[in-house]
Amino acid sequence: MTGREHARNLAVLGLLALILIVLPHSLNVYLRSFAMFAMMYVVLALSWNIISGFTGYTSFGHVAFYGIGSYVCAILVVDHDWPWVPTLAVAAVVAGLIALTIGYPVLRLKGPYFAIAMLGMAEGTRVIVTVWDGLTHGGLGISFPSTENSMSTYYAMLVVMLVTIAVAYGVGHSRFGIRLNAIREDEGAAEALGINVTTYKLAAFALSAAFPAAAGGIQAYKVLYIDPSSVFFVQITIAMALMSMLGGKGTVVGPIVGAALLYTAQELTWVNFPTAHLIAYGLFIVLVARFMPRGLMGFAIDRGWVRKGMVH
Amino acid sequence: MIRRATLAMVVVVLACLPLGVGAAQAADEVVFGGAISQTGRFAEPAGRQVNAIKLWADDVNKRGGLLGRKIKLLLLDDKSDTQTAVKLYEKLITEDKVNVLLAPYSSAITEAVANVNERYKMPFVAYGAAASPIWEKGRKYIFSMVAVAEDYQKGALQLAKKTGIKKIAIIGEDSLFPRQVGVGAKQWADKLGIQVVLQENYPQKQMDFTALLQKIKASGAEAILSDSYFADAVAQLRQLRELNLNFKMFSGTVGPGLPNFAEQLGSTAEYVLGFSQWEPLPDVLKYPGMKEFIAAYRQRFGEEPNYHAGTAYGSLQVTEAAIKNAGSFDGQKLRDALASLDMMTVFGHYKVNAAGMNQHEGLTFQILKGKRRIVWPESVAENTAELPMPEWSKR
Amino acid sequence: MAHRVEAVGGEPPGTSPAATAAAPRRLGRGGMERGEVRSLYLLAAFLVCAYALPFVIGIHYRTVRADEAWLHYLATVVLSGFLQGGVYAMFAVGLTMIFGVMRIINAAHGEMVMMGAYLTWVSFFYLGVDPLLSLLFTLPIAFLFGMALQKLLLNATVGQPELTGLLVTFGLGLVMIYVAELIFTTDFRTIPYAPRTVQLTSTIAIGQNKLVSFAMAVVISVGVWLFLKLTRLGKAIRATALNAEVAMVCGINIRRIYLITTGLAAALAVAGGALVSIQFGFNPETGAVYTLQAFAIVILGGRGHYVGALIGSFMLGILESLVSLMVPNGTAMVELAAYGLLIAVLLIRPGGLMGVKEA
User: Fold this and answer.
1) I need a labelling partner for C242 at 20 to 30 A (CA). Which of A65, A185, B273, C259 fits?
2) Within this chain, do residues B331 and B231 fall inside the same structural domain, yes or no?
3) Has residue B355 been placed in a domain?
4) Considering the domain C33-348, what is its CATH architecture?
């Protein structure tokens, strides 16, 4: 990608940021909250994409990091009186460390086995959080003291999203990203070429864990209540995967577009058709996975709107 | 070709973007909005409350509405999930702009939602919550109606003491209400000198209690206090019978009070104790308007109202009176009216203390010949309790 | 690469060009490489520890007592776990076949079980048919459903990366849950069938419905095992699971095998659902737990290995009972038994008990 194209992308991002900075003042609390959640899903989808799209290791339990982040924030704010912003950094670091620890054994597994292991891990984390109620209040969940925070959480999420986009873009357009792609395409060959496959996988995995954790922390603070079944909800992982796939796995723009579109569509359908909404969602997943596995970006590439062979 | 169709579907869904506007509101209407579990594990009890809410709204509208405006209900489904409920209330308040809030069902959900309505200064009477911690946080916009969770097993424990039971097991679902019942049960047991040999919480949606029930038997407990909702209590009793495990007493909380309980279990439900905030017995309880309410409910819904229905109806009577006293739907004024009101409803007496808590006493009943019979407190008991329960093989 | 000799049903594969091209490796028992044997021993050691752990914890927390009465409780609980294993087998063998033959992770398997429970319930309450007899028509319906599923959705998913299959089946599962919710609401249902208790010894009693379920599960499992081992079609399925390309070369119609496999798996899941419906309460959302347990069993037993799945089912059932009885807060920890097993097996020996090391 040329310098000019990079500059153009930066400009687009800057414009987007500007719009989003000004936007919340003209929205009511509900819409502000809606925008915040849409941004959150962008963060989740992009992060998932780093390990699953770029590196090819389909993580089917990524919600675990989101949940861990939510709980770190909640425990620190409610039980230890921390101000909430620093807890986000702690959440990201904790999640990254956990990712490194479990990643070391688990990333040795191939394809479907990695996916199942991650699913088991996410569910296992949920059970541990539920049972360890000395630390996490178990099934009772953690309830924050009530505060007005729709603006502050919006901006926090905006910051996290911009950082995530920047990181994903940076990864995608760097040697690091190319090597991750190499691992995805043929790990054995990559290793033969001298790429330290383990280090790169672990790095990607840790990166992909940190941002969902921060997002989880912000979300916990926004809703002011979390419990194990809502923050370790398997459908959140599905959403991450689906949004990335819908937009185009392995690209940068893909997950952003996929997340924004799908979340908006979902919220609208839910508001207007509460019962039919879930059936429609299920059908949508089936159709997209079956017929559009390369997503919208794949479609755009086929049509020649976007140049092939680049990570956009 | 299907790829195009899928793409088209994506585009169409997006085109529905403009549809995301809230419903319009007529000027002579007042909207009462809330999220109550219409699906999920709270659907059985919450459904009874929804029935009562609808009945009440129609009654008021028949009498000319409230402050001259017709009541319109906006009831959303929180799927028995707390985070969903919180998001729904935020939407109801800021987007749909309802005039008055209706409470959700379950202590856990009410606790989380209480943060929201407190922030927006819109009060409600919490007919679906019984756990005292909700009122120990200095909140000003939430009012209780029912007897507290901690007292749910008080009557059962008194009866246990009378029957000579010395060791009990307390089990419950792992969520706010059952836990609080357990806390209170332990306190009462200690006061009465009954030993709690096992106290364990099980995950929500747990259905297989085989090992847990064996564990209880192994611990030497003579009676079981099950702080449960509906499906879990049913499963426990059924499995007790299958495993031929005999206990002197089984006391549930919410489950036995629901009409389907005795229906689904048949003879397995006999002798089970349960707690009720209220029973449709006008001659025993003698609260004003009970007969009319029970008749109207029975006619519309084909069954006797149980305590969930009674609680909701009573709470809405209170809300109605408070609105009339305040002369407006304004949150602050309504709040002050609710705090100072002193009245009788079909449910009983309403008068809250400084923390917003009502002082209501519940009833312990036993299922005898398929019907709920009040057995405690003695002042209103219809029957004496038949304890200890006969063994399964002897029924 | 040398393949382990034992496969589905336990017969040696035909001449596989891949096998003969292997360079000579150090061989241990039964033609396995040293590394494989080692990982198998490691797995076995882990399993022994896993079973001992509840006892150790129980002794530490004093939930275990050494007297005779307690031993009777233990026996009842273990028996119950064993019987439960029979029901798990119904879920697991279907999943292992789909995974083995097509490498697809069927995330909707639990929902198929749930569908079976509802089908049985409907035939019981609306048609008045005995739950076990209703299998006579629910199983063919399930078989057709499975075939339709394969033809419409899964055929295109075979050979794609695992995410596609996961998402497609997950989406399908969601649709099934919510359609069931629309039709039946989320109320828990159960079938009051054979509720009496059976006194096996003076102190061990078991519900009659559990025994009936188990007997049915045994009949079905053995029947399918015989089918796989003895009939041509069964052998064709096993061959496809071992190596689809070679099977094709041998003249097996792969597409037909896929159809039959999914049909069979769906039928087994529905049978499992029928057996669940007479024992426990169920609602549209209870399927999800079964899916995960089935995964754990499939991994433990080995991808595509029928007998492995059977063994794994009983092992999980018993382990869950032990955890539930002896670990404090055991009822909540039971799920960890499945996830713990799952992850540990994947880390020690992804091929499971009966598979090759790397699967």
Assistant:
1) A185
2) no
3) no
4) Orthogonal Bundle (1.10)
Q: Name the one residue in this structure whose structure tokens are 């309410």.
A: B293
> Which chain A residue has its CA at the smallest distance from B108's CA?
A140
Task: Tell me the pLDDT of chain B (395 aa) as tens digits.
Answer: 445 555 555 565 555 444 444 455 567 889 999 999 987 778 888 999 999 999 999 999 999 889 989 999 999 988 888 888 998 999 999 888 999 999 999 998 999 999 999 989 999 999 999 999 899 988 999 999 999 999 999 999 999 999 999 999 999 998 888 999 999 999 999 999 999 999 998 888 788 888 889 889 888 899 999 999 888 999 899 889 888 889 999 999 988 988 888 888 888 899 999 999 999 988 888 899 999 999 999 999 998 898 999 999 999 999 999 999 999 999 999 999 999 999 999 999 999 999 999 999 899 999 999 889 999 988 888 888 888 999 888 87
ipTM of the complex: 0.86
Within an 8 Å CB–CB cutoff, is residue C205 touching chain B?
yes
CA distances from A75 to A80, A96, A98, B85, B119 (A): 7, 18, 17, 22, 22
Same domain, B123 and B135: yes
In a shared domain, residues B272 and B382: yes
Summarised one tens digit per residue, pLDDT across range B157-211 is 999 999 999 999 999 998 888 999 999 999 999 999 999 999 998 888 788 888 8
Q: B234 and B372: one domain? A: yes
Instruction: Identify which of A141, A226, A261 has the shortest CB distance to residue B14.
Output: A261
- Mutation site for A-interface testing, chosen from B13, B37, B42 by largest number of A Cβ within 10 Å: B13
Q: What is the CATH number of the domain that holds B118?
A: 3.40.50.2300
Which CATH number do you get for residue A20?
A: 1.10.3470
Q: Based on the fold, state whether residues B265 and B169 are members of the same structural domain.
A: yes
By CB neighbour count within 10 A (0-12 exposed, 13-18 middle, 19+ buried), where does C127 fall? exposed
What's the rounded Cα separation, in Å, for the pair C348 and A109?
Answer: 10
**How far is Cα A79 from Cα A144, in angstroms, rounded to an integer?**
10
In a shared domain, residues B259 and B384: yes
Same structural domain, B341 and B223: no
State the total domains in chain A. 1
Does the beta-carbon distance from B202 to C331 stay under 8 Å? yes
Q: How many CB atoms lie within 10 A of CB B191?
A: 11
Give the domain ranges of chain C: 33-348
Residue A209 tokens read as 């864990």
Q: Quickly state the pLDDT bin for C60 (edges 50, 70, 90).
A: confident
CB interface of C with A, residues 299-328, below 8 Å: 299
Judge if B81 and B206 occupy the same domain: no
DSSP string, C146-176: HHHHIIIIITTTTTS-HHHHHHHHHHHHHHH
Distance of CA B20 to the CA centre of its chain: 33
Can you give the residue range of the structural domain that contains B58? 29-147+286-350
- How far is A224 from B118, CA to CA, in rounded Å? 12
For B218, the closest of C70, C81, C320 (CB atoms) is C70
Most C CBs within 10 A among A98, A127, A240, A275, hence the mutation to make, goes to A127
> Measured between beta carbons, which residues in chain C are less than 8 angstroms from residue A243?
none
Inter-chain CB proximity C347 and A105 less than 8 Å: yes
Which chain B residues are closer than 8 Å to C63 by Cβ?
215
Question: Who among B40, B211, B242 is closest to C330 (CB)?
Answer: B211
- Dist CA A273 CA B285 (whole Å): 43
- Residue A252, domain extent: 3-303
Q: Please state the φ and ψ torsions of residue B368, each to the nearest 5 degrees.
A: -125, 125
Of the pLDDT bands very low, low, confident and very high (cuts 50, 70, 90), residue C336 is: confident
CA distance C339 to chain B (A): 16
